[in-house]
Design a protein that fits this description.
Structural class: alpha/beta
Number of helices: 18
Shape: globular
Radius of gyration: 23 Å
Strand order of the largest sheet: 4-10-9-8-7-5-6
CATH superfamily of the largest domain: Type I PLP-dependent aspartate aminotransferase-like (Major domain)
CATH class of the largest domain: Alpha Beta
Number of strands: 15
Largest sheet: 7 strands, mixed
Strand content: 5-15%
Length: 462
């Protein structure tokens, strides 16, 4: 009997949250219900999610950056259908993949100083590969990473995570990993001068907080890595693939990393795919003899669906000029947000590159508002943002979230296809809700509830 997915989904749609709470992550269900994000989506198109009542939600999360092309792009769907209809001979293992070779060629065309590619299933897996490549190529073990970094949640990647929330309870982590401040070349040199560091792994723009380096930082990173024989690894998993208005975010500063890690948007939003791009000599240190041809790999990494999704994504980006669009529309969006929010009590700054944008808030000036803000801040540094995000979702049908744990920053990762109508809508909505927060209106009741829950949770953990 053929599985009828349409009927199965229709028959059991009302069980979604119960099933997830029973068999998967019940705490996530509680979070969604507490903040009112518990919707049942029936479909998605472009920049929008569509619930079963037909309400359209502008998606500024983009699956943490996965849906750069928007959701369900027809060209990616068409490519995947061709693979399925073609009944191709994939994952033979004792063979090589033509589609993988073509995708590697097209990726490397965007970063011509690199020559080799390794495919995997996720960003975290690309980071794991980078650690192994760096240690094998240099004969060294130390890996240097930054405070506030997020490189994934598998053990090697977690060992480079700069947020204690993610690390706590999972120790001991991978050894010989050293943390330095982000955007501090002097601190980096202090570690590198011992000449025992295999790699410095850094997000050129940090995803947690959308932290942008000073203009000379990455050039200094490249110079120091070359001086001390350390590989410069750029984690472009979220910021790459055109999101910031360049193919790689590091290209804004004219540097040429030794290893680049990609994932998220490369999938087109369908089939998981990650990639590591590197210099030939590094690659050949790992795969240096025939008996080591399989010394590192991943069973499903070069599957034809994933390779086709990557090829279709690159084609759409080129056809629709999405990298250029990210630069121009992103700049317009940031300018409009600054104009509308400037002078508001809680507003501090808008920063970003292209379509990777942060809106930062902070303590208000007026005495009337300080006490209310302090209550939320004492419970959790990012809790005030929910007083903006919840009504954005409920009143304006805009989905967004905080930029990271314990920080008063909202991050926007719009699909690169958004246009003038979406920019106008989200800017007007943000202005309305930031203004409303200053009135100490009804949403503050929810704020007090969330603060109380956060404090109780902290007490239980302590």
């Amino acid at each position: 009997m053929t599985l009828d997915l349409t009927s199965l989904i229709a028959a059991r749609a009302d069980e979604k949250f119960d099933l997830f709470e029973k068999h998967l992550n019940g705490q996530l269900v509680r979070v969604l219900k507490t903040i009112g994000f518990d919707r049942t989506y029936a479909g998605a198109e472009g920049a929008y999610l569509i619930d079963r009542d037909g309400t359209r939600y502008l998606d500024l999360l983009s699956g943490w950056g996965v849906f750069a092309l928007g959701r369900n792009h027809p060209q990616v769907i068409a490519a995947l259908k061709q693979v399925l209809d073609g009944q191709m001979a994939g994952l033979v293992q004792m063979d090589v993949s033509l589609l993988a070779g073509i995708l590697a060629e097209r990726l490397i065309a965007h970063v011509p100083w690199l020559e080799k590619a390794f495919f995997c299933n996720s960003g975290a897996e690309a980071i794991e590969a980078a650690i192994k490549f760096a240690r094998a190529a240099t004969g060294r073990s130390k890996i240097v990473y930054c405070e506030h970094a997020f490189h994934g949640l598998t053990y090697g990647a977690l060992s480079l995570n700069g947020d204690e929330l993610f690390r706590k309870g999972f120790e001991p982590l991978v050894g010989d990993c050293v943390r330095v401040p982000f955007d501090d070349a002097g601190a980096l040199e202090q570690v590198l001068r011992a000449r025992d560091a295999a790699a410095f792994i850094v997000e050129p723009i940090q995803g947690k907080g959308v932290n942008i380096p000073s203009d000379g930082y990455l050039a200094d990173v490249q110079r120091l890595c070359r001086k001390y024989g350390t590989l410069f690894v750029a984690d472009e998993i979220q910021a790459g693939m055109g999101r910031t208005g360049r193919f790689l975010s590091s290209q804004h500063w004219g540097v040429e990393p030794d290893i680049v890690c990609l994932a998220k948007a490369l999938s087109g939003g369908f089939v998981p795919v990650g990639a590591l791009l590197t210099r030939r000599w590094i690659f050949e240190k790992l795969f240096d003899r025939m008996d080591r041809a399989v010394v590192h790999g991943s069973t499903f990494a070069k599957n034809d669906l994933a390779m086709a999704a990557g090829l279709a994504t690159l084609q759409v980006m080129e056809d629709e000029r999405l990298i250029e669009r990210a630069a121009t529309v992103g700049e317009r969006l940031m300018s409009e947000l600054r104009s509308r929010l400037e002078g508001r009590e809680f507003f501090r700054a808008v920063r970003g590159k292209g379509m990777m944008i942060a809106i930062e808030f902070g303590a208000p000036r007026s005495l009337k508002l300080r006490g209310a803000y302090a209550m939320l801040d004492a419970a959790s540094k990012g809790l005030f943002c929910q007083l903006i995000l919840i009504p954005l979702f409920q009143r304006h049908h805009i989905l967004a979230q905080v930029a990271g744990h314990n920080m008063p920053v909202i991050k926007l990762l719009p699909p690169l296809i958004v246009g003038d109508a979406e920019v106008a809508h989200l800017c007007a909505a943000f202005e309305a809700e930031v203004r409303d927060a200053e009135s100490l209106g009804g949403i503050w009741e929810l704020g007090r509830t969330l603060a109380g829950q956060a404090l109780k949770t902290r007490a239980r953990v302590a």
